[in-house]
Amino acid sequence: MKREIFFGRTCGQNISVTTEDDKIVELDFESDEHENLIGNIYKGKVMNVLSGMQAAFVNCGLEKNCYLSMDETFTDPARYDGGHVAQNEEIKPFTLKEGEEIMVQITKPPRGGKGAKVTTKVSYVGKNLIYIPRDTFMGVSRKIADDELRANLLFTMGKMREKDEGMIIRTAAPTADRRALRKELEFFRRIDRENLEKMATAKVGELIWKEEDLFNRNLRDLFTDKVQKIYVADDEHYRIVRELLSFYGDGSERKLVYYKGERDLMSQYGLIHQIIAALKPCVPLKSGGNLVIEGTEAMNVIDVNTGKFIGKDNKNLEETVFHTNLEAAREIARQVRLRNLGGLVVVDFIDMVEEEHKRQVSRVLEEELSHDRTKCRVLPMSDFCVVEFTRKRINHDVAGLEKRICPHCSGSGSILSDSLIAIAIRAAISDAFANGYLAVVVELNRGVMESILRNGWYTPVVKGKWKDKRVYMVPHRTFHEEQFTVRGDNSGVLHLPDDAQILY
């Protein structure tokens, strides 16, 4: 399997794309407007204690108070198969008081009308370890299946750890030597000491420690020896990624490719259309069937349809449905990774009669979900061919971050964000210039054009790659937000309306 990672920055967005055999399986955005909060540590103040619910609301300086559950004040051993907990590990009673100042870390971002979820059990995520100060928990990733290897890793790290110091051994740890493991452990010890010092003098709501940015985070979590290439198109980020890869050793920096082509990086490798498709509710299947994916605040629902697929010769209805459901199960596993769906996911497969067919579809779905780096728990298929599974929410879902309420249907639908539309337009402009045109005329929605100009999203490329080109933007009030056309022109004489804008 060919696995590659693409990093890009454009139109106020950092973008990370991971592909397997040229199909996107993981997609992550980090915009200037919506920074990642997960992993950030704040000095908080307890505002309300809900004794009956064993929970509290904490002021962390964010728009809404954060929710702290008693379950988030200790590490749950059940989450890590084969993990070891020291004999003196005890769950401390919930003793928070209103007005108390505490250090908390965000575990889930704000969603809908809810504030972020936080924990007092601060941890630091590295490539090989998750370091948990002031704890005695020792765990091993479930993806390390070999019992002897798990025991050896626990023994090795047990020798390195100090009193009241816990950790979780990550999937990458078996390939690291002891020196690298110790170096990572010492690094987090130093960071935690510094954070405790900041906590002592910080004001309520002050950020104590910020989680790494998108590029650092995804290199840490996604880069393995199975990745063949990493593509970067920006000079600054190329230097950053190269430095990070050299830190990992083993000649990892040799896998880094600095893309300097005329076309946009994401366009050159056929990723733009896949990114846009990842934000649409309908997903076509090769057979002619389709998936419809809809999200609510409580859950995500996926409906499987046969669509245009009517089966092949000598196949009855049951076989047609079974074939569609099998294909859908594989695609569903890819889509939940791609869209970063979290929480409860309910899949309504097409009704099947034969029990063996139901078992096979469930087995394929569970097997495909097992490749996800995020934990999934799948329940058996019901008599109505409905499967429920949970997927740990680790960040914003892609659609929730990159879509906004549609202004044309009283809020019952959604459209792409202006920045994502700008990214698609930018890619089309790059394609026109790569085809030999010196000037490009873009006709687009007036509001989208105003966003592009106001935010200066094209300024870096206009001053760089496009400095000898001309881009004319013609606004239309009647264009839908997602509607635009891009045409190249070498005539030298252009007849444009008075409200056209030229980008220098």
Task: Provide structural commentary.
The protein has 504 residues and is α+β, with helices and mostly antiparallel strands. It folds into 4 domains: 92 residues, Nucleotidyltransferase, domain 5 (2-Layer Sandwich), CATH 3.30.420; 169 residues, Beta Barrel (OB fold (Dihydrolipoamide Acetyltransferase, E2P)), CATH 2.40.50.140; 119 residues, no CATH class; 87 residues, Hypothetical Protein Ychn, Chain: A (3-Layer(aba) Sandwich), CATH 3.40.1260. It is built from 12 helices and 28 strands. It has a 6-stranded mixed sheet, with helices on one face. The longest helix is centred in the middle third of the chain and has 24 residues. About 2% of the residues have low confidence.
Name the quaternary structure. Answer: single chain
By DSSP, the count of extended strands is 28
Low-confidence stretches: 81-89
Task: Quickly count the domains.
Answer: 4
N-C termini distance: 44 Å
CATH topology of the largest domain: OB fold (Dihydrolipoamide Acetyltransferase, E2P)
The CATH architecture of the largest domain can be given as Beta Barrel
Classify the helix fraction into a percent range: 25-40%
Q: Write the CATH homologous superfamily of the largest domain.
A: Nucleic acid-binding proteins
> Which geometry do the CA atoms define?
globular
